Amino acid sequence: MALVLAPEPPADDWLLELDELTARSPGFFGGRPVVLDVSALKPSARALGLLLTELEARGVRTIGVEGCDPKTLEGPYARLAMPIGGRAAGELSAPEAPAPKATSLVIDQPVRSGQTISFPHGDVTICGSVASGAEVVAAGSIHVYGALRGRAIAGAGGDGKARIFCRKLDAELLAIDGVYMTTDDLDKGLRGNPARIWLEGEKLSVAALD
Amino acid sequence: MAEVLVVTSGKGGVGKTTSTAALGAALAQTGQNVVVIDFDVGLRNLDLVMGAERRVVYDLINVVQGDANLNQALIRDKRVDTLSLLPASQTRDKDALTAEGVERVINDLKGRFDWIICDSPAGIERGAYFAMRHADLAVIVTNPEVSSVRDSDRIIGLLDSKTEKAERGEQMEKLLLLTRYDPVRAERGDMLKVDDVLEILSIPLLGIIPESPEVLKASNLGSPVTLANPISAPARAYLDAARRLRGETIPMTVPSERKSFLGGLFGRRAA
């Protein structure tokens, strides 16, 4: 434990009191580490230097100075500066830097009937087909590099800017941001061809992907 | 090392049992030791198609539950002595199957046979699950029509997630067996073409079995078609498929019935 000395202005009087104390109890400071709190004194850089020299002459071992701007500690005393504020703490292990959250999911296999691919953090890319009876749900856009025969639900978290792209449009259901359409009455020219789907106002638009 | 093969489809009535019997017999005809297991507990059929219905004493459930041993339950085929049948129980249901029991039976059979062919029941419930659970290889039986294809797709998804092999992180080998195929009707657009089915399911093709009255005839005779009439078109297709299973490379064709030149010439006149 370190002893805290908090000098009161004027500094000269305080030093006299300190001398009286050491006279009454010799060896009071013997080797004890002392922290000097100068927040009441608010000394200049020079005054602080003098005070520390006086204390040193009296055998007080100052290990730190607090309550002042660290810049006021000059020369050999600069090392005594103590951080202002902060909190008591032992050795802290720095937390592992969190891995950046994936914003895209890539599926390298066809999505089979009855399977659901759900990704609430962003886009989904399927390198294969989405079968009839299969379902892909993404917070972002959906890209299908194959036939889209099942359901594609993009912008599931409320992203109206999400889109759906596929190499062969044969979907059972398309949805973006809750606006959905079945493709029963889709234009014949679009069915079976590469297409993109986006939300325009309150309606889904489907166009050929050139 | 024994190869565990599951014959499955999702949909019923597409030819799983017929194909199990035909492929099992075809493999056995090449000298391989083969056992075919009926997992359709409660609706067994494989015994009928194999012509062994009057020889069943103990069945799969008895063995699974420890009431009988394998030697008592296995029925050796009278025509091909390397072919055996482990029948299902007709009086019980699929709940009688247990995970430990099925695993023990399969492991025991692995020491005795080269091929263990599991005939899966239709559907995706308990029976189908146990039939596919320990498989190394799956034959997906599919008819060239949309509902069969979609059900097959569903089963492929389950094979990739629910089997032991999938749970070990390995890829299950899946082969397509297209049954009841009629090239003329496919060309007319009345049924899906081979390429359409392959495009949807994206798994390799094991064989194409042509639609033929020979298949029904053989079933009613209680004989796998590869034994009943080995030169018929479906039998030749199954025999080719069995050789592909053994690793041979055989060009993919759709066999057709051979009509003798003279038969065609005179048959008409006599009528």
Automatic annotation (TrEMBL), chain B:
Q: Which GO terms describe its molecular function?
A: ATP binding; ATP hydrolysis activity
Query: Which residues of the sequence carry a binding annotation for ATP?
Result: 11-18
Domain (CobQ/CobB/MinD/ParA nucleotide binding) spans 5-225
One Gene Ontology cellular component annotation held by this UniProt entry:
cytosol
Q: Which CDD domains match?
A: MinD (cd02036)
Q: Name one GO biological process term.
A: division septum assembly
Is the keyword Ligase in the record? Answer: no
Name the UniProt key words of this record, in alphabetical order: ATP-binding, Cell cycle, Cell division, Nucleotide-binding, Septation
SUPFAM superfamilies found in the cross-reference section: P-loop containing nucleoside triphosphate hydrolases (SSF52540)
Q: Which family does it belong to?
A: Belongs to the ParA family. MinD subfamily.
Function of the molecule: ATPase required for the correct placement of the division site. Cell division inhibitors MinC and MinD act in concert to form an inhibitor capable of blocking formation of the polar Z ring septums. Rapidly oscillates between the poles of the cell to destabilize FtsZ filaments that have formed before they mature into polar Z rings.
On assembly, the entry states:
Interacts with MinC and FtsZ.
Which PANTHER family does the record cross-reference, listed alphabetically? SEPTUM SITE-DETERMINING PROTEIN MIND HOMOLOG, CHLOROPLASTIC, SEPTUM SITE-DETERMINING PROTEIN MIND HOMOLOG, CHLOROPLASTIC-RELATED
Task: State the protein's name.
Answer: Septum site-determining protein MinD
